[in-house]
């Protein structure tokens, strides 16, 4: 029960994405599955703020 409780958000996200895939296809699956991914969210934030350029990465300004 502990691991299920700890993984409940991931399980719920995967289940939702699988249901979406059944209705809308593979592309929709990845959109639904990755929308809560913290790495993807951070990447989007960096792109939107202009900190995801090669120069920013070299200078360490992407944090």
Brief descriptors of the model:
single chain; 63 residues; mainly alpha
Q: Estimate the strand proportion.
A: under 5%
Question: Could you estimate the helical fraction of the residues in percent?
Answer: over 70%
Structural class determined from secondary elements:
mainly alpha
Helical run tally: 5
Can you tell me the overall shape?
Answer: flat
Separation, N- and C-terminal Cα atoms: 37 Å
- Total of domains: 1
Report on the biggest sheet: none
Poorly predicted segments:
none
Summarize the structure.
By secondary structure, this protein is mostly helical. It has helices at 2-6, 8-24, 26-34, 38-48, 54-59. The protein has one domain (2-59).
